[in-house]
Write a structure and sequence with these properties.
heterodimer, A: alpha+beta, 4-stranded mixed beta sheet, 6 helices, about 10% strand, B: mainly alpha, 8 helices, about 70% helix, globular, EC 4.2.1.134 (chain B), Tyr_Pase-like_PTPLA (chain B), transmembrane helix (chain B), lipid biosynthesis (chain B), transmembrane (chain B)
């Protein structure tokens, strides 16, 4: 019987910055084992070129452009934290913080208002919408999203939480304030705002489901998203990242509902950030797929 | 803050011993030379105005009024520097330059101009003098660098005077803001209270206090950055003096 020839590699790993030899492995088969306990795998960046892109977990040694002695460069990505952990923390904060303001927990407003409730029904509605939004986000993080990367740098959690928690406190303070003023056009305005909000929440959820279904469980494949039977996904005809489009819509609805300047500010900042992300995603779609639909814009149909 | 002396000491302004990196084109260079000459002249006008007013009055109190207009013109004019960075003819960070210029403009307009009662304070003279000396040196530094004829004296002055001018400016600024506090609180200047249709409030008095607190982390960072820059730019001088 013929024996399949097995190729073994010698592998040396150098530090990307100092070029010190960190380790040498002889007789490596297909897979490069992770070589350190201190630098756990998630924070190891292994690349062929010191300034190049990281190799992926799935890359196979035999298919890389290396000779029988392969030289890799190692870069420490710094302490890492899982995406799921970050999302859960950054979303749980606003949920709880807003409720603290809604229930007028002591030391926020004047003592005579402690544990009282607002006399405006729109304030109760706003609390329900805000809470619903973040509960939805938490559940999506746990059950819907399929993440490409397992981890992100640890410092992101401080940055992200400051942003989400800070804005939530700022918004909630005014909406639940004893001197809150309801929207100028009253019930009409609130009803329109609620419609927009709910429409966009359903839309956003539909997109998340559609994106999830693009990717089989445990895989990291990337495909072009297309409209499905769900009408809320038909926006894929015009936009690359409709999840962001719907998210913007939701917050515009919430701004209209509460008529509160800090909410408008949060919507604006979020819009700017999401536009940056959408443009990046759009660009990488165009780069990766030659047959990418040309009618699509990153986030706003025909505009942006 | 009297910070603009730092951070902008990057490529286009280094002396000819460094390899010439891609700098501004000839038109941009001509424009920048004119800009920096005009600014140098402007701050000289302020310096001369201060000296003349001092000699005329015989005291250093209330000199602000004698240079109020040129101070406003030339300090506000520095906003153009943000544009220079944004367009790319000056190789500095837009964010950093923006922050530095905005803090100066804030002090000029939102504090000194807006709160009349502080205009006669001596702290105002303290930061105006610090700014004036700093800017005269800084703008002439840029002018000469652009013309590739930087006298060592100017380079030395730029990276040495800050040791005194920077704390002096910061002291003047902080004392001025502090002096403005009671008037801001009493009149509710620039403040919005509840209730209102946009469900928003702003307390300028509290804001000013937060600005003062922000000096605590920011000032040391900027100061030590300048010290590090000094070592880099003037470093070789120290080596020679050690050999003696």
């Amino acid at each position: 019987t013929a024996r399949k020839a097995v190729v073994f590699f010698e592998v040396e790993i150098l530090d990307a910055k100092t070029k010190d030899k960190l380790c040498f492995l002889d007789k490596v088969g297909k897979i490069l084992p992770s070589f350190s306990l201190y630098w756990y795998p998630a924070r190891q960046s292994i690349r062929l070129d010191p300034k190049g892109k990281s190799l992926k977990d799935e890359d196979v040694l035999q298919h890389l452009p290396v000779g029988t002695t392969a030289t890799f460069y190692f870069r420490d990505l710094g302490a890492q934290i899982s995406w799921v952990t970050v999302f859960l923390t950054e979303y749980a904060g606003p949920l709880l913080i807003y409720l603290m303001f809604y229930f007028r927990v002591p030391f926020i407003y004047a003592p005579k208002y402690d544990f009282t409730t607002s006399k405006h029904w729109v304030v109760h509605l706003a609390c329900m919408c805000h809470s619903f939004h973040y509960v939805k986000r938490l559940l999506e993080t746990l059950f819907v999203h399929r993440f490409s990367h397992g981890t992100m740098p640890l410092r992101n959690i401080f940055k992200n939480c400051t942003y989400y928690w800070g804005f939530a406190a700022w918004m909630a303070y005014y909406i639940n304030h004893p001197l809150y003023t309801p929207p100028t056009y009253g019930e009409q305005q609130i009803r329109l705002a609620l419609t927009v909000f709910l429409f966009c929440q359903i839309g956003n959820f539909s997109i998340h489901i559609a994106l999830r279904n693009l990717r089989p469980p445990g895989s990291k494949t990337r495909k072009i998203p297309y409209p499905t039977k769900n009408p809320f996904t038909w926006i894929f005809l015009l936009v690359s990242c409709p999840n962001y489009t719907y998210e913007l819509g939701s917050w515009l609805g919430f701004t209209l509902m509460t008529q509160c300047l800090p909410v408008a500010a949060f919507t604006l900042v979020g819009f700017i950030q999401m536009t940056v992300w959408a443009k990046g995603k759009h660009r990488s779609y165009l780069k990766e797929f030659r047959d990418y639909p040309t009618l699509r814009s990153p986030i706003l149909p025909f505009i942006l | 803050m009297s910070a603009p002396a730092m951070g902008t000491s990057k490529t286009a302004h280094t002396d000819s011993s460094h390899k010439k990196k891609k700098g501004p084109g000839t038109l941009a260079t001509a424009y920048l030379v004119i800009y920096n000459v005009v600014m140098t002249a402007g701050w000289l006008v302020i310096a001369v105005g201060l000296v003349r007013a001092y000699l005329a009055r015989g005291s250093y109190h209330g000199l602000y009024y004698s240079i109020e207009k040129p101070l406003k013109y030339f300090q506000t004019g520095a906003l153009l520097e943000i544009l220079h960075c944004a367009v790319g003819i000056v190789p500095s960070s837009v964010v950093l330059t923006g922050f530095q210029v905005m803090s100066r403009v804030f002090l000029t307009w939102a504090v000194t101009h807006s709160v009349r009662e502080v205009q006669s304070e001596d702290s105002v003279l303290l930061f105006v003098v610090a700014w004036t000396v700093t800017e005269i040196i800084r703008y002439s530094f840029y002018t000469f660098s652009l013309l590739n004829h930087l006298p060592y004296l100017i380079k030395w002055a730029r990276y040495t005077f800050f040791f005194v001018l920077y704390p002096m400016g910061v002291a003047g600024e902080l004392l001025t803001i502090y002096a403005a506090l009671p008037y801001v609180q009493k009149t509710g200047l620039y403040s919005i209270t509840l209730p209102n249709n946009y469900n928003f409030s702003f307390d300028y008095h509290t804001f000013l206090i937060l600005v003062m607190i922000s000096y605590i982390p920011l000032f040391p960072q900027l100061y030590f950055h300048m010290i590090r820059q000094r070592k880099k730019v003037l470093g070789h001088v120290e080596e020679y003096s050690k050999v003696e």
